[in-house]
Amino acid sequence: MANTSDIRKGLCIKYNNDIYKIIEFLHVKPGKGPAFVRTKLKSVTNGKVLDNTFSAGHKIEDVRVETRSYQFLYSDGSTYHFMNTDDYNQISLQEDILDAPGLLKEGEVVTIMFNTEDSMPLSIDMPASVILEVTHTEPGLKGNTATNASKPAVVETGAKVNVPLFINEGDKIKIDTEKGSYMERAK
After folding, report:
1. How confident is the model at residue 63 (pLDDT cuts 50, 70, 90)?
2. Taking phi first (over 0 means left), then psi (-120 to 50 degrees means alpha), and beta for anything else, what does residue 143 get?
3. Which domains, from first to last, does the chain contain?
4. Count of CB atoms within 10 A of residue 130's CB?
5. Backbone angles phi, psi at 4, to 5 degrees
6. Which residue has the higher pLDDT, 144 or 65?
7. How far is Cα 28 from Cα 59, in angstroms, rounded to an integer?
8. FRET partner for 37 with CA separation of 20 to 30 A, picked from 4, 157, 173, 178?
9. Strand 36-43 and strand 18-28: pairing?
10. CB atoms closer than 10 angstroms to residue 37
């Protein structure tokens, strides 16, 4: 058993007869009244996200997890196939367990969390950023740079990302996987 001081991003807990992963948390100590922790929980079974508030010192039941590195091989429809980088065993997972499936490129290495009790995959952690090539974007208009203007672009995985006007087709860009937003042009 853990308590609210052990809450951190990525922690898996049992709550309401389901397993949830903490995606965001904020420890609040108001000037008047007791402290509490505001959390955003994502169900690993159905993907629903809910907001919950735990009072300070509240006991939570954490789930023991094991992480392993897997390489993304390919997808066929809504099923994604991964290979363990240590023993080369392959597993297939449904699209709803992934946070950003549109940014997943073949050969990308991800970290998959497994429940140690029943070896069920709980969640997939993407790398912090990925480098993808722009396959389609409209040319930027000259003189339209007075503000921080952007335009839509399609990357090699099919995902749509807003990029600055100076990005052209064929450029490689670095994308933040958590927000799905443009970070910088890659060399």
Report:
1. confident
2. left
3. 2-62 (2.30.30.30), 65-125 (2.40.50.140), 129-185 (2.40.50.140)
4. 21
5. -65, -20
6. 65
7. 17
8. 178
9. antiparallel
10. 21
* Mean pLDDT for the stretch of residues 134-144: 77
Query: Of 36, 33, 38, 63, whose CA–CA distance to 52 is shortest?
Result: 38
Task: List, as own/partner pairs, every contact residues 178-183 make where C-beta atoms lie below 8 angstroms and the sequence separation is at least 24, other chains included.
Answer: 178/99, 178/100, 178/126, 178/128, 180/100, 180/102, 180/103, 182/150, 183/129
Q: Which residue, among 58, 1, 49, 50, has the nearest Cα to 27 in the 3D structure?
A: 58
The amino acid that residue 130 corresponds to is V
Token couple for 75: 């997808």
Q: What is the 3-state secondary structure (H, E, C) of 114-172?
A: EECCCCCEEEEECCCEEEEEEEEECCCCCCCCCCCCEEEEEECCCCEEEEECCCCCCCE
pLDDT band at 82 (very low <50, low <70, confident <90, very high): very high
